[in-house]
Amino acid sequence: MPGIDACLHEAMNLPGARGAAIVDWTSGLALGTAGESPNGDHEATAAETAELARAAAEYTAFAPAAAAGHKGPPVEDLIVTTRTGYHLLSFVETTFDSSVFLHLWLDRDTGNLALARLRLGQLAERLVLG
Amino acid sequence: MTTAPAHSTVSPMLVRLAGERATGALLRDHGTLYLADGRVVHAESPAAPGIDVLLTAGGRLPRAGWEEAVDRAGARREVGRFLVDSGRLGGGELEICHLGALFDAAYFALAPGSGPTRFRYGVAHWIGPVRPVSASAVERETRRRRELLDQVWPYAAVDTAPVRAREPAPGQAVTRRQRALLELADGVRTPLAIAWALGRPAFHTLLDIRRLAAAGLVETPAEPVAATPAAVPSWVATVSADPDIALLRRLRDALEASL
């Protein structure tokens, strides 16, 4: 029965993982955090990544008409590449009305982006299945 | 923006109770915070839809399923656990929903209110332990939320007034979540009524309404202004180098009145 902590723990076990969080993108609230934060403050990081996630989730450019019948978020994930790392934002689809995503910060040298993207998507699904 | 309230305490009593690792219910005018060992385990407010509303409004949980859980596990204060153990809800889902409801109700419960704050030692909520959070995290988040609303659109009047939708400008996009909200903006429902109808947290709805108002998609009601002058008043010429929000608002009102 994976909860928030188990989910973050698994995310942190991925190669190159430096920090992870579950964030609400409407309010910018961090529901849970693990590991380090890029700016030393998990709550500030959550507020910033939430703005990015909200833009992606709401802009019509990222909401293709073909997905209009699907009531979940039109965007699956976001990848931001910096000089030293990767940031993966994976949207969590809940059956009640919510706005939550998983954020994983990976080291650029030791992280495996393809693997992490796949696993984070699975974690986002399992988080709500119970 | 003022920086003075940033470090002031939202509730001195909450800080003290957390320090003594108290267990019980903190009763305030606009809601109740439940503590266990000094940590916040639950919060309720008449303004905020409870976890039952959040779960049942969208059809996630049939109302009967919720009521059965309360009947069977309420007396031993393990409703949350029962929902998960009986397969009605995923563990992560319960935590996400419960935390959303907790911070939402706490925002209203900790609103600056009149009247005394009381604490009843030993009282526990029937939802039972889900994912306790520290009192300081609740304080910080409540303060951040207050500031966030005013950063988005510093007109508190939109929080309580009936929501009136405005026509989007040509080419202006309205998103999926905004549309759901605007469809209920009939000029009668307030933001809180919309939150209950949609099964979304109340603060989220206040924030979305302020964002919509900032984007011009929702009307911003006029603030109660005492006798707006007919012409642009003389103090307009003496606007200081550091204009504040109240001043800008008065300026806007004066300009609108003179048009």
Summary?
Chain A is an alpha+beta fold and 130 residues long.
How does this structure look, described?
Chain A is of the alpha+beta class. Chain A has a single domain, classed as Dynein light chain 2a, cytoplasmic (Beta-Lactamase, 2-Layer Sandwich), CATH 3.30.450. In chain A, 33% of the residues lie in helices and 28% in strands. Chain A is built from three helices and five strands. Chain A has helices spanning 4-12, 42-58, 113-129; strands spanning 17-24, 29-35, 77-81, 85-92, 100-107. A five-stranded antiparallel β-sheet of chain A has the order 2-1-5-4-3, sandwiched between helices. In chain A, helix 1 runs antiparallel to helix 3. Chain A is globular, with a radius of gyration of 14 Å. The model of chain A has no long low-confidence stretch (mean pLDDT 91). By secondary structure, chain B is of the alpha+beta class. Chain B has three domains: 10-145, no CATH class; 157-214, no CATH class; 226-259, no CATH class. Chain B contains eleven helices and five strands. Chain B has helices at residues 12-19, 51-57, 63-73, 79-85, 91-109, 135-152, 157-160, 176-183, 191-198, 202-214, 245-258; strands at residues 24-28, 31-36, 39-44, 118-121, 133-134. Chain B has a five-stranded antiparallel β-sheet with strand order 4-1-2-3-5. In chain B, strand 2 (31-36) and strand 3 form a beta hairpin. The longest helix of chain B is centred in the middle third of the chain and has 19 residues, at 91-109. The two termini of chain B are 29 Å apart. In chain B, 36% of the residues are buried. Classes of the chains: A alpha+beta (130), B alpha+beta (259). At the A-B interface, strand 2, helix 2 and helix 3 of A face helix 2, helix 5, helix 6, helix 8 and helix 10 of B.
